[in-house]
Amino acid sequence: MMRRFLMGCLALACTGMLASPGWASSVAVTAYLDNVNPTDSVDVQFTVGQGVTEQTVGFSTPYVGQINWILQNVSGSALDEQFLGSPTTKGALNPNGDGRFMTFCVEGTQDVYIGADSTWATLTSLDQVPFSYDGLSIAMGSNAATVLQQFWSRHVGDIKDSTTAAAFQLDVWEIVYDTTTDYNTTTLKFNPHFDSGKFQAGNNTLAVNQAATWLNDAKVGIGGTAGYTTYNLYALSDPYLQDQVFGVESTDVVAPKGGNPNRPSSPVPLPAAFPAGLAGLGLLGAAAFLRRRRAQTCTI
Protein backbone atom coordinates (compact mmCIF):
# COMPACT_ATOMS: atom_id res chain seq x y z
CA MET A 1 0.00 0.00 0.00
CA MET A 2 1.36 3.37 -0.97
CA ARG A 3 2.28 5.46 2.05
CA ARG A 4 1.64 9.16 1.98
CA PHE A 5 4.68 11.30 2.55
CA LEU A 6 3.05 14.38 4.01
CA MET A 7 5.22 17.30 4.86
CA GLY A 8 4.35 19.13 7.96
CA CYS A 9 4.76 22.82 7.47
CA LEU A 10 2.04 25.18 6.23
CA ALA A 11 2.90 27.09 3.08
CA LEU A 12 2.97 30.87 3.25
CA ALA A 13 3.34 33.12 0.24
CA CYS A 14 4.82 36.51 0.90
CA THR A 15 3.21 39.56 -0.59
CA GLY A 16 6.30 40.68 -2.47
CA MET A 17 9.44 39.23 -3.97
CA LEU A 18 12.81 39.04 -2.30
CA ALA A 19 15.08 42.04 -2.48
CA SER A 20 17.99 39.77 -3.41
CA PRO A 21 18.14 38.53 -7.01
CA GLY A 22 16.64 35.10 -7.46
CA TRP A 23 16.27 32.94 -10.52
CA ALA A 24 14.13 30.10 -11.74
CA SER A 25 14.21 27.83 -14.78
CA SER A 26 11.09 26.18 -16.13
CA VAL A 27 11.62 22.43 -16.11
CA ALA A 28 9.66 19.24 -15.63
CA VAL A 29 11.54 16.94 -13.26
CA THR A 30 9.81 13.65 -12.46
CA ALA A 31 11.20 11.33 -9.79
CA TYR A 32 9.97 8.26 -7.95
CA LEU A 33 10.13 8.50 -4.14
CA ASP A 34 11.81 5.23 -3.26
CA ASN A 35 12.23 5.64 0.51
CA VAL A 36 13.27 7.85 3.38
CA ASN A 37 16.41 6.30 4.83
CA PRO A 38 18.06 6.80 7.21
CA THR A 39 15.16 8.32 9.12
CA ASP A 40 13.86 8.70 12.66
CA SER A 41 10.71 9.76 14.51
CA VAL A 42 10.51 13.33 15.80
CA ASP A 43 7.71 15.60 17.02
CA VAL A 44 7.80 18.78 14.94
CA GLN A 45 5.87 22.05 14.84
CA PHE A 46 5.74 24.72 12.14
CA THR A 47 4.33 28.23 12.35
CA VAL A 48 3.66 29.66 8.91
CA GLY A 49 1.95 32.65 7.45
CA GLN A 50 2.07 36.11 8.89
CA GLY A 51 -0.39 38.45 10.53
CA VAL A 52 -3.97 37.22 10.26
CA THR A 53 -2.90 34.24 8.13
CA GLU A 54 -0.45 32.86 10.69
CA GLN A 55 -1.08 29.22 11.56
CA THR A 56 0.69 26.67 13.76
CA VAL A 57 0.68 22.97 13.02
CA GLY A 58 2.36 20.22 15.04
CA PHE A 59 2.57 16.48 14.54
CA SER A 60 4.69 13.40 15.14
CA THR A 61 6.31 11.85 12.08
CA PRO A 62 8.60 8.84 11.59
CA TYR A 63 9.96 10.29 8.36
CA VAL A 64 12.54 12.86 9.39
CA GLY A 65 15.65 12.06 7.40
CA GLN A 66 17.21 11.58 3.98
CA ILE A 67 14.77 11.35 1.06
CA ASN A 68 15.87 9.00 -1.72
CA TRP A 69 14.58 9.30 -5.27
CA ILE A 70 14.88 7.50 -8.61
CA LEU A 71 14.95 9.95 -11.51
CA GLN A 72 12.28 9.25 -14.16
CA ASN A 73 12.45 12.18 -16.58
CA VAL A 74 13.91 15.65 -17.07
CA SER A 75 12.51 18.11 -19.58
CA GLY A 76 13.69 21.68 -20.07
CA SER A 77 16.21 23.72 -21.98
CA ALA A 78 19.19 21.88 -23.43
CA LEU A 79 21.45 23.39 -20.78
CA ASP A 80 19.09 22.51 -17.94
CA GLU A 81 18.83 18.95 -19.19
CA GLN A 82 22.61 18.74 -19.46
CA PHE A 83 23.00 20.10 -15.92
CA LEU A 84 20.36 17.90 -14.27
CA GLY A 85 21.09 14.74 -16.23
CA SER A 86 18.62 11.99 -17.11
CA PRO A 87 17.82 8.48 -15.88
CA THR A 88 20.68 7.22 -18.06
CA THR A 89 23.14 10.11 -18.13
CA LYS A 90 25.03 11.64 -15.23
CA GLY A 91 24.08 15.05 -13.92
CA ALA A 92 23.10 16.89 -10.77
CA LEU A 93 20.12 14.53 -10.28
CA ASN A 94 22.03 11.43 -11.38
CA PRO A 95 25.48 11.90 -9.85
CA ASN A 96 26.46 8.22 -9.88
CA GLY A 97 24.89 7.18 -13.16
CA ASP A 98 22.34 4.88 -11.50
CA GLY A 99 19.43 7.33 -11.67
CA ARG A 100 19.37 7.87 -7.91
CA PHE A 101 19.66 11.10 -5.95
CA MET A 102 18.83 12.34 -2.46
CA THR A 103 17.18 15.48 -1.13
CA PHE A 104 16.06 17.09 2.10
CA CYS A 105 12.77 18.89 2.63
CA VAL A 106 12.54 22.67 2.86
CA GLU A 107 8.76 22.84 3.24
CA GLY A 108 6.67 21.54 6.10
CA THR A 109 3.10 21.22 4.87
CA GLN A 110 3.06 20.18 1.24
CA ASP A 111 3.00 16.53 0.22
CA VAL A 112 5.03 13.96 -1.66
CA TYR A 113 4.24 10.26 -1.69
CA ILE A 114 6.40 7.23 -0.98
CA GLY A 115 6.02 4.74 -3.80
CA ALA A 116 4.84 7.31 -6.33
CA ASP A 117 6.17 9.82 -8.84
CA SER A 118 6.39 13.55 -8.18
CA THR A 119 6.89 16.19 -10.89
CA TRP A 120 8.28 19.64 -10.09
CA ALA A 121 7.84 22.56 -12.47
CA THR A 122 10.80 24.72 -11.48
CA LEU A 123 14.51 24.50 -10.82
CA THR A 124 15.26 27.54 -8.69
CA SER A 125 17.79 29.31 -6.54
CA LEU A 126 17.63 28.29 -2.92
CA ASP A 127 16.54 31.70 -1.63
CA GLN A 128 13.24 31.44 -3.53
CA VAL A 129 11.85 28.49 -1.59
CA PRO A 130 9.65 27.41 0.06
CA PHE A 131 6.70 28.41 -2.15
CA SER A 132 3.12 27.15 -2.28
CA TYR A 133 -0.17 27.66 -4.05
CA ASP A 134 -2.03 28.73 -0.92
CA GLY A 135 0.15 31.70 -0.02
CA LEU A 136 1.28 30.37 3.35
CA SER A 137 4.95 29.71 2.62
CA ILE A 138 7.59 32.43 2.80
CA ALA A 139 10.83 32.10 0.88
CA MET A 140 13.85 31.66 3.14
CA GLY A 141 15.78 34.58 1.59
CA SER A 142 19.46 35.08 0.92
CA ASN A 143 20.76 34.92 4.53
CA ALA A 144 19.18 31.54 5.18
CA ALA A 145 20.29 30.25 1.78
CA THR A 146 23.88 31.20 2.57
CA VAL A 147 23.79 29.59 6.01
CA LEU A 148 22.18 26.44 4.60
CA GLN A 149 24.83 26.11 1.89
CA GLN A 150 27.62 26.37 4.46
CA PHE A 151 25.88 24.01 6.88
CA TRP A 152 25.30 21.45 4.12
CA SER A 153 28.94 21.59 3.03
CA ARG A 154 30.20 21.06 6.58
CA HIS A 155 27.82 18.36 7.76
CA VAL A 156 26.21 16.37 4.94
CA GLY A 157 29.17 14.01 5.18
CA ASP A 158 28.31 13.39 8.85
CA ILE A 159 25.05 11.58 8.01
CA LYS A 160 25.76 8.05 9.18
CA ASP A 161 22.60 6.72 10.83
CA SER A 162 19.00 7.53 11.78
CA THR A 163 19.98 10.06 14.45
CA THR A 164 22.33 12.07 12.26
CA ALA A 165 19.95 11.98 9.28
CA ALA A 166 17.10 13.26 11.44
CA ALA A 167 19.38 15.92 12.97
CA PHE A 168 20.39 17.11 9.51
CA GLN A 169 16.76 17.47 8.43
CA LEU A 170 15.89 19.31 11.66
CA ASP A 171 18.70 21.78 11.00
CA VAL A 172 17.50 22.33 7.44
CA TRP A 173 14.06 23.28 8.79
CA GLU A 174 15.57 25.41 11.57
CA ILE A 175 17.62 27.36 9.04
CA VAL A 176 14.69 27.77 6.62
CA TYR A 177 12.21 28.94 9.25
CA ASP A 178 14.24 30.61 12.01
CA THR A 179 17.32 32.23 10.47
CA THR A 180 15.62 35.62 10.87
CA THR A 181 15.53 35.26 14.67
CA ASP A 182 18.35 32.82 15.44
CA TYR A 183 21.12 34.02 13.12
CA ASN A 184 23.17 37.04 14.21
CA THR A 185 24.22 38.95 11.10
CA THR A 186 26.83 40.87 13.11
CA THR A 187 28.64 37.95 14.74
CA LEU A 188 27.65 35.58 11.92
CA LYS A 189 26.73 32.91 14.44
CA PHE A 190 23.64 30.73 14.59
CA ASN A 191 21.97 30.23 17.97
CA PRO A 192 19.35 27.49 17.46
CA HIS A 193 16.26 27.19 19.66
CA PHE A 194 14.31 24.01 19.04
CA ASP A 195 11.87 24.77 21.87
CA SER A 196 10.71 28.11 20.45
CA GLY A 197 10.39 29.96 17.18
CA LYS A 198 8.62 29.13 13.93
CA PHE A 199 10.13 25.67 13.84
CA GLN A 200 10.26 23.46 16.91
CA ALA A 201 11.23 19.84 17.49
CA GLY A 202 11.08 17.44 20.41
CA ASN A 203 10.58 13.90 21.69
CA ASN A 204 13.91 12.76 20.22
CA THR A 205 16.68 13.99 22.49
CA LEU A 206 19.53 12.45 20.51
CA ALA A 207 18.49 13.99 17.20
CA VAL A 208 17.62 17.40 18.67
CA ASN A 209 20.89 17.59 20.63
CA GLN A 210 22.91 16.64 17.57
CA ALA A 211 21.10 19.24 15.50
CA ALA A 212 21.82 21.91 18.12
CA THR A 213 25.49 20.92 18.27
CA TRP A 214 25.90 21.27 14.52
CA LEU A 215 24.20 24.67 14.35
CA ASN A 216 26.19 25.93 17.32
CA ASP A 217 29.30 25.23 15.25
CA ALA A 218 31.08 28.59 15.21
CA LYS A 219 31.97 28.17 11.54
CA VAL A 220 28.41 27.81 10.29
CA GLY A 221 27.39 31.13 8.78
CA ILE A 222 30.87 32.60 8.20
CA GLY A 223 31.94 30.66 5.16
CA GLY A 224 33.65 27.98 7.17
CA THR A 225 33.97 25.36 4.44
CA ALA A 226 37.77 25.14 4.31
CA GLY A 227 38.79 21.52 4.51
CA TYR A 228 35.29 20.38 3.54
CA THR A 229 33.71 19.51 0.22
CA THR A 230 31.86 22.63 -0.91
CA TYR A 231 28.38 22.08 -2.28
CA ASN A 232 26.22 24.37 -4.38
CA LEU A 233 22.56 23.98 -3.47
CA TYR A 234 19.52 24.08 -5.73
CA ALA A 235 15.79 23.61 -5.17
CA LEU A 236 13.06 21.71 -6.96
CA SER A 237 9.87 23.69 -6.51
CA ASP A 238 6.22 23.39 -7.41
CA PRO A 239 3.15 25.19 -6.05
CA TYR A 240 1.45 21.88 -5.25
CA LEU A 241 4.37 19.74 -4.09
CA GLN A 242 6.77 19.75 -1.21
CA ASP A 243 9.91 21.66 -2.22
CA GLN A 244 13.20 19.79 -2.09
CA VAL A 245 16.83 20.90 -1.82
CA PHE A 246 19.74 19.00 -3.36
CA GLY A 247 23.46 19.61 -3.44
CA VAL A 248 26.10 19.43 -6.17
CA GLU A 249 29.77 19.27 -5.32
CA SER A 250 31.41 22.46 -6.58
CA THR A 251 34.22 20.43 -8.16
CA ASP A 252 31.82 18.16 -10.06
CA VAL A 253 31.83 18.58 -13.83
CA VAL A 254 28.08 19.11 -13.85
CA ALA A 255 28.24 22.09 -11.49
CA PRO A 256 29.82 24.89 -13.59
CA LYS A 257 26.84 25.10 -15.91
CA GLY A 258 27.12 28.06 -18.25
CA GLY A 259 30.41 28.97 -16.60
CA ASN A 260 28.78 29.81 -13.26
CA PRO A 261 28.77 27.04 -10.63
CA ASN A 262 26.22 28.85 -8.47
CA ARG A 263 23.49 29.28 -11.04
CA PRO A 264 22.26 27.22 -13.97
CA SER A 265 22.15 28.86 -17.38
CA SER A 266 18.99 30.28 -18.90
CA PRO A 267 17.54 31.68 -15.67
CA VAL A 268 13.98 32.91 -15.87
CA PRO A 269 13.29 35.86 -13.53
CA LEU A 270 10.33 35.20 -11.28
CA PRO A 271 7.38 37.55 -11.80
CA ALA A 272 6.72 39.97 -8.96
CA ALA A 273 3.40 38.32 -8.14
CA PHE A 274 4.96 34.85 -7.81
CA PRO A 275 4.63 33.81 -4.15
CA ALA A 276 8.08 33.36 -2.68
CA GLY A 277 7.69 30.37 -0.41
CA LEU A 278 7.14 26.59 -0.39
CA ALA A 279 6.78 24.78 2.91
CA GLY A 280 8.51 21.64 3.90
CA LEU A 281 8.41 17.98 4.27
CA GLY A 282 6.86 15.99 7.00
CA LEU A 283 6.10 12.42 5.88
CA LEU A 284 3.12 12.02 8.13
CA GLY A 285 1.40 8.72 8.57
CA ALA A 286 -2.02 10.15 9.40
CA ALA A 287 -4.32 11.28 6.62
CA ALA A 288 -6.58 12.82 9.24
CA PHE A 289 -3.98 15.52 9.77
CA LEU A 290 -4.94 17.17 6.49
CA ARG A 291 -8.55 17.38 7.59
CA ARG A 292 -7.59 18.93 10.93
CA ARG A 293 -4.66 21.12 10.14
CA ARG A 294 -6.42 24.33 9.20
CA ALA A 295 -8.70 24.38 12.21
CA GLN A 296 -6.49 22.94 14.89
CA THR A 297 -3.46 24.39 16.63
CA CYS A 298 -1.09 21.65 17.73
CA THR A 299 1.74 21.91 20.18
CA ILE A 300 4.67 19.61 20.72
Structure description:
The chain has 300 residues and is α+β, with helices and mostly antiparallel strands. It has one domain (4-286). Helix content is 20%, strand content 29%. The protein contains 5 helices and 11 strands, in the order βββαβββααβββαββα. The strands form 3 sheets. A 6-stranded antiparallel β-barrel has the order 2-3-4-11-10-6. Strands 1-5 form a two-stranded antiparallel ribbon. The model is unreliable at 1-20 and 253-300 (pLDDT under 50).
Query: Mean of residue pLDDT?
Result: 79
The total of helices stands at: 5
How much helix is in the residues? 10-25%
Q: In terms of structural class, how would the helical and strand content be classed?
A: alpha+beta
Order of helices and strands: EEEHEEEHHEEEHEEH
Total individual domains: 1
Q: End-to-end span in angstroms?
A: 29 Å
Shape: globular
Q: Please provide the count of β strands.
A: 11
Give the strand line-up of the largest sheet: 2-3-4-11-10-6
What percent of residues are in strands? 25-35%
Give the uncertain stretches in residue-range form. Answer: 1-20, 253-300
Largest sheet: 6 strands, antiparallel, barrel
What is the CA-atom radius of gyration, in angstroms? 17 Å
